[in-house]
Design a protein that fits this description.
Number of strands: 0
Shape: flat
Largest sheet: none
Order of helices and strands: HHHH
Length: about 110
């Protein structure tokens, strides 16, 4: 079955596994690489994946990093904000609205 994934669906990450009689285990072997510098941690995690992939008994080696998440850091000049009469809370709410949106109304249809 795994050959079907490799040959017919090369861009698909598929896994064939035996249904065990016991508690579910998502992956039989897992490693956690952690640290403070994201780039270094990613590099070491890639090295770990390479070592694990080198073993012919392993299949479906992957990580759960997905894509990097963009972040936004606002630095506010509190004196200027106060002079304009804008609170930190109002600025935070405006930033949240810009990034995630906000509910402006709800529509409910009455049923008879």
């Amino acid at each position: 079955m795994i050959e079907l994934f490799r040959n017919d669906f090369p861009n698909l990450r598929g896994r064939v596994k035996l249904l065990p009689n016991g508690p579910p285990v998502p992956y039989p072997v897992q490693f956690r690489v952690q640290g403070t510098d994201v780039a270094t941690v990613r590099s070491i995690a890639d090295q770990v994946k390479d070592v694990v992939r080198a073993n012919p008994n392993t299949v479906g080696v992957n990580d759960n990093w997905n894509e990097q998440v963009k972040s936004l850091k606002l630095t506010l000049d509190q004196d200027k904000a106060r002079a304009l009469g804008v609170s930190s809370q109002a600025l935070a709410k405006a930033a949240q609205t810009i990034l995630s949106g906000t509910t402006v109304a709800q529509f409910r249809k009455a049923t008879s």
